[in-house]
């Protein structure tokens, strides 16, 4: 078994249509936190599940597109030029006084199933808030400012994270979109076509470094470091990489009562052992900083009286060390092969995605640090265990990442929560950082 390896613009103007809640005007209150809270509530209502069940807004569904329409409408109301690229990313622009490289900010609107209402969304509403502050306060800037709402950041539907930002990084080819499928067998290409996109033109979404100078994303931490240490802001220096793959275990389904234990080829038992191996490796002292997760385990035929004949283990290996990340994934596969041989089952391993860790540019971090220092002394430098669009954008243009606190460190669950006041503070720091970049020697 092979090792897991180290790894016309087509844009169109957006005419916001939206669904229920889409026609609402931006709140005009002088209280920035109140504006942000209103936007968060509106976006949380655009979901395929009831409010008490969290937010479900999967990549390249009509629901995700509806949320994009709402935000596009907000940018349009502010007076920005709004367009959608061929990958489904929404891009709004506030022109600068000179024809220079653009400075960007933004995040994503899609969610995991029954997730929270802040992951990604906080960065989007912060972008809207920044655009609104620029216009209301009459702040001029020489570089164009672009506000980006990425499509399909979560890997929940297709197992591929950062689909929209991967497109702007030029890492998609049209044929690859046919190879990636969801649990229902719908390819990414077909899902894009169903919401009016043209997957065959995906390469046209690529950003050119001559058009972009820098990018900064605001995001909720999704952990508890800021909260437990009393910090209000986090400046990210490093983003973990992620290797996601499936181990498809094929055993032999048979009657749970009439089949002796010694004659079984139980796919689920083998899958359970593989799961524990992944946990064991991540807890080993030699893997300090490694995180292994089995977030999904699919069992067939799924009957209490039938020995499972097939089980699919969905694994996510994350690390700040690129080599160790891939070594851990390969160790799990090799240990799984030994388990399979001993238990009389067979394996098929499918790599879903593989993204390297990234160290963010020092000079961008310094700009964000200066912006933080002008607002509070309660900030810290930290790494991110979660993947973000910034990780892919940074392969094209220098990028930075700013965290605001998450209560209890909870994320990807309905209980996920960050205060509107914290996001408002982050929005003010984000605006300050963008203006500092506008005057920075690297970009002048």
Task: Please explain how this structure is put together.
The protein has helices spanning 32-44, 62-78, 121-136, 163-168, 174-179, 188-194, 225-229, 267-283, 322-343, 362-373, 389-393, 420-438; strands at residues 12-13, 81-84, 90-94, 102-108, 145-150, 212-220, 233-239, 241-250, 254-255, 291-300, 306-307, 310-319, 346-355, 358-359, 379-384, 399-404. It is of the alpha+beta class. The protein folds into 2 domains: 12-240 and 357-443, Zn peptidases (Aminopeptidase, 3-Layer(aba) Sandwich), CATH 3.40.630.10; 241-355, Alpha-Beta Plaits (2-Layer Sandwich). It is elongated, with a radius of gyration of 23 Å.
Secondary-structure map:
Elements: E1 12-13, H1 32-44, H2 62-78, E2 81-84, E3 90-94, E4 102-108, H3 121-136, E5 145-150, H4 163-168, H5 174-179, H6 188-194, E6 212-220, H7 225-229, E7 233-239, E8 241-250, E9 254-255, H8 267-283, E10 291-300, E11 306-307, E12 310-319, H9 322-343, E13 346-355, E14 358-359, H10 362-373, E15 379-384, H11 389-393, E16 399-404, H12 420-438
Parallel strand pairs: 4-5, 4-6, 6-16, 7-15
Antiparallel strand pairs: 1-2, 2-3, 3-5, 7-14, 7-16, 8-12, 8-13, 9-11, 10-12
Helix pairs in contact: 1-3, 1-12, 2-3, 3-12, 8-9, 10-12
What key phrases describe this protein's structure?
four-stranded antiparallel beta sheet, Aminopeptidase, Alpha-Beta Plaits, ten-stranded mixed beta sheet, elongated, single chain, alpha+beta, 444 residues
């Amino acid at each position: 078994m092979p090792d897991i390896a180290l790894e016309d613009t087509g844009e169109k103007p957006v005419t916001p249509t939206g669904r229920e809640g889409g026609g609402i005007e931006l709140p005009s209150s002088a209280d920035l936190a109140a504006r942000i809270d209103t936007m968060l509530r509106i976006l949380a209502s655009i979901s395929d599940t009831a409010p008490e069940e969290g937010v479900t807004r999967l990549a390249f569904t009509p629901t995700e597109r509806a949320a994009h329409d709402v935000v596009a409408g907000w940018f349009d109301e502010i007076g920005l030029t709004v367009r959608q690229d061929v990958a489904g990313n929404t891009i709004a622009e506030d022109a600068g006084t000179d024809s220079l490289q653009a400075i960007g900010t933004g995040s994503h609107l899609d969610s995991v199933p029954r997730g929270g209402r802040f992951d990604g969304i906080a960065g989007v509403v912060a972008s809207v808030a920044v655009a609104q502050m620029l216009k209301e306060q009459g702040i001029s800037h020489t570089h164009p400012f672009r506000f980006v709402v990425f499509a399909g950041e979560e890997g929940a539907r297709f197992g591929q994270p950062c689909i929209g930002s991967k497109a702007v990084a030029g890492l998609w080819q049209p044929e690859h979109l046919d190879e990636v499928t969801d649990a229902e067998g719908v390819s990414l290409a077909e899902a894009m076509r169903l919401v009016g996109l043209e997957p065959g033109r995906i390469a046209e979404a690529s950003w050119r470094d001559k058009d972009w100078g820098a990018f900064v994303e605001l995001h909720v931490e999704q952990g508890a470091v800021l909260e437990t240490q009393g910090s209000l802001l986090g400046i990210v220096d490093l983003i973990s990489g992620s290797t996601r793959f499936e181990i498809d275990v094929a055993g032999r389904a048979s009657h749970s009562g009439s089949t002796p234990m010694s004659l079984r080829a139980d796919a689920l038992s083998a899958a359970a052992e593989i799961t524990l191996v992944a946990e064991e490796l991540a807890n080993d002292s030699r893997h300090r900083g490694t995180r292994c997760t089995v977030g999904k385990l699919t069992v067939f035929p799924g009957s209490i009286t039938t020995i499972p004949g097939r089980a699919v283990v969905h694994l996510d290996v994350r690390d700040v060390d690129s080599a160790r990340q891939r070594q851990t994934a390969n160790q799990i596969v090799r240990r799984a092969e030994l388990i399979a041989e001993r238990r009389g089952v067979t394996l098929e391993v499918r790599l879903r995605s593989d993204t390297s860790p990234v160290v963010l540019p020092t000079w961008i971090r310094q700009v964000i640090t200066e912006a933080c220092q002008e607002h509070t002394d309660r900030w810290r430098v930290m790494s991110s265990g979660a993947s973000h669009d910034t990780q892919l954008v940074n392969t094209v243009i220098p990028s930075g990442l700013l965290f605001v606190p998450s209560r209890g460190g909870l994320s990807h669950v309905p209980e996920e929560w960050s205060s509107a006041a914290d996001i408002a503070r982050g929005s003010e720091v984000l605006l300050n950082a963008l203006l500092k970049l506008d005057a920075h020697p690297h970009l002048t």
